[in-house]
Each structure stands twice: as structure tokens, then as C-alpha cells.
Design a protein that fits this description.
Blueprint (H helix, E strand, L loop, with lengths): L4 E4 L2 E4 L3 E4 L2 E4 L6 E4 L2 E4 L3 E4 L2 E4 L6 E4 L2 E4 L8
Antiparallel strand pairs: 1-2, 3-4, 5-6, 7-8, 9-10
Length: 80
């Protein structure tokens, strides 16, 4: 069993933040403003994935971020 792996039953699996490459576990390349979930990374709230990076949303005044999108606050309407 390679480093950064765990045994489950009669097999081994790479730990969170690592991917299996042949007989080893290789660390994910996680960009700033991202979090690891299992063997993948996802952009944090307020950021969108663009290629291998996380880019901040452009949030207008009177709007709030929810996940990787923004929505107008109560009493306001999106225009454009």
C-alpha cells in the first residue's frame, strides 16, 4: 500500500486530496479559493471554476452570494 492511502476490505484507496496514479497516490493540485472533497476539488462559495483556477464572482451592489452564483436582495431585480 502506498503512502496517503487507506485499506478498505481487501483493497486500498487514496485518501482525500489524492488521486490514484498506477500504484501510488498523487496529491491534487488545488488552487486558491478551493476546497477538497474526496478526490476532487471545488471552488468555494463566491468563486467559479475557470480551467484549473477559481475566479471571484462579480457581485453587484444589493446582491448576495449563494454557492457559486449571486442573487438580488429582496426588493431588487436583476437588469441585464
Amino acid at each position: 500500500m502506498p503512502p496517503n492511502a487507506s485499506v478498505l476490505g481487501n483493497a486500498w484507496y487514496c485518501n482525500d486530496g489524492f488521486n490514484r496514479v498506477g500504484d501510488s497516490c498523487v496529491a491534487l493540485k488545488v488552487p486558491p479559493n478551493a476546497s477538497v472533497l474526496g478526490n476532487a476539488w471545488y471552488c468555494n462559495d463566491g468563486f467559479n471554476r475557470v480551467g484549473d483556477s477559481c475566479v471571484a464572482l462579480k457581485v453587484p451592489p444589493n446582491a448576495s452570494v449563494f454557492g457559486n452564483a449571486w442573487y438580488c436582495n429582496e426588493g431588487f431585480k436583476q437588469v441585464g
